[in-house]
Amino acid sequence: MSITCESEAKVFGAWHKQFRHQSQSLNCSMRFAIFLPQKATSSDKVPVLYWLSGLTCSDENFMQKAGAFAVANELGIAIVAPDTSPRGEGVADDDGYDLGQGAGFYLNATQAPWQAHYQMYDYVVNELPQLIEANFPVSSVKSIAGHSMGGHGALTIAINNQNQYRSVSAFSPIANPSNCPWGVKAFSHYLGDDKALWAKYDAAELLASAPMALPMLVDQGDADSFLEEQLKPKALVEAAQVHGAKLQLRMQPGYDHSYYFISTFIGEHLRFHHRYLSA
Amino acid sequence: MSITCESEAKVFGAWHKQFRHQSQSLNCSMRFAIFLPQKATSSDKVPVLYWLSGLTCSDENFMQKAGAFAVANELGIAIVAPDTSPRGEGVADDDGYDLGQGAGFYLNATQAPWQAHYQMYDYVVNELPQLIEANFPVSSVKSIAGHSMGGHGALTIAINNQNQYRSVSAFSPIANPSNCPWGVKAFSHYLGDDKALWAKYDAAELLASAPMALPMLVDQGDADSFLEEQLKPKALVEAAQVHGAKLQLRMQPGYDHSYYFISTFIGEHLRFHHRYLSA
Fold it and tell me: Which ranges of the sequence are coiled-coil (chains A, B) (predicted)?
């Protein structure tokens, strides 16, 4: 479980750092980023918000563009951003931006050639938190959030692991991937034809099939060009009603799919998580 | 003076937009970005802060990474970010990151092959403000700021045009380019051997040679890897004393050359400029 620091930068009196490690789940070298607020010390461990990014992203997009650090530092929340897939020359890939490297969809692949490395679900749920809690002044109290493909990842991981997280939030999540082009393409390649397996990675299907106890906050811009074809927040709202899940979906007028949208509301998401992380 | 919108995104209730136009000064097609706060309407024109970026940057780096929009919107300040050089297939270039496209140094080149397009000083001082004031709900009240090469640009342009700007600020500026490798390389190529011409584009030399009436705020990280060899803030402080210029240089402990540093203090820079823009 050794990690190597690749960069560090002071920000708002706190620290942003990037580390590399050999992932057991993914069977390749991986980089992640961590924001450590000033409150984080060996005697005062802070909770962690895991952030899952969208298609084509790495650990850097959120950290460079979201503008989250002033509020995260004020609230004393660490933020960990993994990469969005396994990486490297020996890792299967595809010419499309929506399959292969940069497009891991936070699932455990079962199909060749993907299954050898594409185990992002295990990486995010198990390996990465163990690594973080062993190496940094953080507690095991955590929440999870993400954007687009990462919003899908955050919602499905939280619903499937309700004892591990306190809360979940998403920007523009792929809410019903079994019924949109991005999801159908990815799930067909990574998981094959078994639709029962797909359901474990579909937030709308999960909410329709069993109770979800954690609070969920979702922001969706109504000027998002992916809204109708790919994201389908209505399916999430309808599914949440089946078992009375605590979903707050906010349609944000005029906002698109970009980090300009995320930067506008990330402070509110951090305060939402803080209520549960500090409870 | 026609401009074409290439993107727009709502952010903090306001707007970030990118436009393309044919530049007369630069003799090529150029893109710039503008942040328009909610206060900007045809009946309520707002002042403008011009932001000049550093080596390798475009109009996008500051807009995506600085986290400036919440405070700029609160204060009612528009922000305009030009590109850092002329661009395009017909524009002279160099393999180095510190010469040619992405490295215009905000000067008017006199030497071949650069002089045909590299007239960034005229572009920033004259053409761009005319274009902005003709096309957007902004007043002619303006200040200027920048980072690294753009900090050099902001300081020299403000000192040379004290009637046009209200205030100037810089992060990690190249303060004495005639005496550092980046500056000597660029000035030699763009301006030739005439050191008298170099002096017009050297903030430290300008401050030593004549009074500067505008308030200047400079932030410099003491963990900046370019500090000793390239940036030379001490030369700026010493030069400012010659004619009693109003320079506040803040050495910021632990900060590096990155946008993490800029994002930490950009709010203070905006409030600094607001005092003079609203006076």
Answer: none
